[in-house]
Amino acid sequence: MQLEQLLTLFPLLTNSSPFLFAVLDANHRYLAANNRYSEISGLTHEELKGKNDADVFGQAFYDKLRPHYIQALSGNEVEAEIQLTDGFHESSFHFSACPLKLDPASDTVDGVIFHAADTSERQVLLHAMEEVQEKFDKLTELMDEGFCVTDNGQILTANDRAVTLLGFDAINEILSNELGELVVSMKGKSDVGKQLDALPDGHWLECKTGPRSTVERNLVVTQSAIHLLSSQVYLVVIREKQVVTEGEKHDNAYQKLAHFDPLTGLYNRHGFTRRLEEYVEAGTPLVMLHLDVDNFKNINDSLGHHIGDKVLQEIASHCVVCCRSLPSWGTLVVMSLPSCCRRLPIRRKAFAWLSRLRR
User: Fold this and answer.
1) Same domain, residue pair 208 and 261
2) pTM flag (> 0.85)
3) For a disulfide at 33, which of 37, 41, 163, 266, Cβ 3.0-4.6 Å?
């Protein structure tokens, strides 16, 4: 193609583009430039001819591109991104510089075809995303739970704990995947994302790891809407569901029998003594009251032991509201009051409880 033909077709092909297009000679001066150059420089197409980047964008811009022009004139295609700053503003351009050969049969390079897109706004967003990611990483590395951020169900980012809980080895294995592809709901085959959207605040959805996971694990998941760069996304919290084995259930049952009274559910003598020792060792301020139910034997004798048991249960339920620990030894109840109760005269407080119990 002759140079004249190229320069004739050039404005027809590029003047409507929002990007920078130019044809440069071997001295890096414009043979032709599209409308975007005119809009930035305020010069007409004719006025732009013979000028270079230093005349239009400044010396710093030209200094950044000059090595790439030299490569293009050596016959190499170049694609890269440059960043410019004047101390107050930062601009970035993604560009390509290709050798111009008017005679395809010749190795002679006659000039450069240059194309660039202003990516400054994208760069600002990238910096903002990097800052958000850094804060997210610092916060979530302190947590035991798994955290990930999703947009329309797709995972944008996640902490290491989330990767592990979902049964993967690296974060790249879950990024851009839908959460519903990685976990399976315990409530049937309906979409996990829809179930999470319908989940009331403070509630958790029971799930298990999906078929792509390397391990089978029971999970509970919840989400909350948050704003990220003016867009609404979701912060998903993932925890491993604790499964209690039969052996652990038996151990827990034995512990309860050893420390609690089966009738009232309050500490027995052994449980109370152990808790009292913990308070003493920790230096916890406390006040102790002994309550004895008068004439309780008459209740058992006249109304039966089942009624006596209900009386003890009722007394315990009233006392436990205001007490940290309550042992029950027959008709004797010992109360360990929290230290905050010392703000009121304890005598007045005790009589107020007794009054309620009598009623």
Assistant:
1) no
2) no
3) 37
